[in-house]
Amino acid sequence: MKQFNLLIQTPGRGYYLITKEITDAIGDDVGIIDVGLLHVFLKHTSASLTINENADPTVRDDFKNFEEELVRRDFPFTHDYEGPDDCPAHIKSSLFGCELTIPISNGKLALGTWQGVYLCEHRDSTQNRNLLITLNN
Amino acid sequence: MKQFNLLIQTPGRGYYLITKEITDAIGDDVGIIDVGLLHVFLKHTSASLTINENADPTVRDDFKNFEEELVRRDFPFTHDYEGPDDCPAHIKSSLFGCELTIPISNGKLALGTWQGVYLCEHRDSTQNRNLLITLNN
Amino acid sequence: MKQFNLLIQTPGRGYYLITKEITDAIGDDVGIIDVGLLHVFLKHTSASLTINENADPTVRDDFKNFEEELVRRDFPFTHDYEGPDDCPAHIKSSLFGCELTIPISNGKLALGTWQGVYLCEHRDSTQNRNLLITLNN
């Protein structure tokens, strides 16, 4: 196994395709793996990772709009030190999850044709997000 | 590590138990593993995988009914090329997730007594769904 | 790979930090691993595992309150043999998920500063919950 760090700065709330950033981070190491697994871990509790549609950007806009309906800011949360986006961001992070395992086949991530990895930023303001990637072969 | 492909045709929206299809796909290879992990990956963005109750089919009916309340079709989604079930299916896919890791103990999947694997079809119409299974030992 | 069993009794519905219970269960075995993965699996369908904020207990209270809004008991569920918390517990279990993979670096779980593992109990009454932990190195 081998690990790679990846730092991504987000411009605030939204869903961002990071498939290329992940493959760039692991570089040539994946090319020699016939069968393996790639684990991607986000070291934060107010953002998340998910796999979804990699082509039409309106899907990511719809995620951004819908998450505010799914976890409404006007719910009487107690934990609001960092503003009205604080606790909703924690809950969204757990609903989508902060880690993914992706299979590797013939030296490449075995994603489906329409699949890409999203970094989901649930805080309103720009954030630095640290990921730890583990290549398991 | 070893990989197996599995194709499942769904009859449209609903939750389907596929534990047996998975164990059939991996066949005898799991029987010789004392301790291991099985990774199950669905290569699509409008369906998902989850683990839930394997006995009473009304649980799966309740999931099917409740998902329409959780992600309502009348939300003003932009991405609707393929109909009113299009964007809701993407969001449900990310809420449940498209991949699972299941422990293996003594040559068998170490699921709890009541646990089974569901393939969750979020599109209305029949679909062909491709899974890639990785045996990690 | 090596596996460890962990039994945790919950006092009923709520979100409980179990990071220490997990590291105690694996003991000294993790200390000798430079790079690895830890898989944590909950063998139940009415509870779940997630990673979230490890410091302020009001976050866990907010999760407990909000889950009742996310999956309302007054939805017309069919599966209610064990009471009004029965089917909501199944659905919450699948939304948060019953398994997690956590990276290991330099002999320790590589969690972010604010990350801890929650055992999420979705049933009202006290329950015994079995976890199976797999150390993958």
Automatic annotation (TrEMBL), chains A, B, C:
Q: What is the lineage of its organism?
A: Bacteria, Pseudomonadati, Pseudomonadota, Gammaproteobacteria, Lysobacterales
The UniProt entry's sequence similarity note says:
Belongs to the UPF0047 family.
The UniProt entry, under PANTHER family, shows: UNCHARACTERIZED PROTEIN YJBQ-RELATED, UPF0047 PROTEIN C4A8.02C
State the protein's name: Secondary thiamine-phosphate synthase enzyme YjbQ
